[in-house]
Amino acid sequence: MYKILQVTCTENVKRISSLFCYRIVLLHIHLLLHTMAAGQDRWQKDAADQNFDYMFKILIIGNSSVGKTSFLFRYAEDAFTSAFVSTVGIDFKVKTVFRQDKRVKLQIWDTAGQERYRTITTAYYRGAMGFILMYDVTNEESFNSVRDWVTQIKTYSWDNAQVVLVGNKCDMEDERVVSTERGKQLSDQLGLEFFETSAKENLNVKVVFERLVDIICDKMSESLDSDPSLVSASKGTRLNEHTSSTNANCQC
Ligand SMILES: Nc1nc2c(ncn2[C@@H]2O[C@H](COP(=O)(O)OP(=O)(O)O)[C@@H](O)[C@H]2O)c(=O)[nH]1
Ligand SMILES: [Mg+2]
């Protein structure tokens, strides 16, 4: 009798736990679909807004927890939260900047968890014209990963993609392990522009985006000067189709 009761109990526990697991899986699928639907909606809304001269896709990459989401949040919403909330799903924000009378629409993509496994897909890199490659000045490992991230960019993005190196969390002076000099030295070796920033204290955040836009514009002008067919032919360029030929000579 005791044995029968025990078996029944065990089976019930199994049934309940499998039901519980099933519900968790359903919840995850629901969340994923919701995130994708939200992304899709935004895509459609953004695509409909044609009021810009150029559109640049920018990616923020770097190890997990260096501050990518906070950096984007600070730039797009002018806010900061110290709570660590792991990025879920696909996320991007759109911000329009004005550079020398040109409306430049930035579509800024935040890595969504994949950075932990360094499995950011080619689809994510496709069409990106600029990268903000971020490390954390209080985290040696994130600094040591910078070269790997550069390799990823070289492998998956188009040749003209522009990159700036960013050492974030420069407000945490007491916990700093990567000096400004080492950051500068690495950026020189890699041929990248370099900034130290703080998403928390809002230091250099806007500067980084604006500088990256300027670098992309300069590169576009250079490419056009040498070969005007380059811009329309390049797979990564996301110029507005309605952009006139005079506009295409970005005067940023
Ligand atoms: N002190 C300080 N903390 C930061 C800064 N940027 C991000 N953080 C914190 O670092 C943690 C990870 O940030 P998060 O943006 O989620 O990193 P991500 O994984 O690269 O997206 C969070 O607790 C943030 O509040 C910064 O500039 N200064
Ligand atoms: Mg994040």
From TrEMBL:
Under Pfam families, the record lists: Ras
Which spans does this entry mark as compositional bias, Polar residues? 229-248
Keyword field: GTP-binding, Lipoprotein, Methylation, Nucleotide-binding, Prenylation, Protein transport, Transport
- GO terms for molecular function, please? GTP binding; GTPase activity
UniProt entry tagged with the keyword GTP-binding: yes
A Gene Ontology biological process in which this protein takes part is: protein transport
| Organism superkingdom | Eukaryota
Q: Does the keyword Acetylation apply?
A: no
- InterPro entries attached here? P-loop_NTPase, Rab3, Small_GTP-bd, Small_GTPase, Small_GTPase_Rab
What are the start and end residues of every segment in region (Disordered)?
Answer: 224-248
Q: Which family does it belong to?
A: Belongs to the small GTPase superfamily. Rab family.
Give the protein's recorded name: Ras-related protein Rab-3
Species source reads Nephila pilipes (Giant wood spider)
- Gene label: Rab3
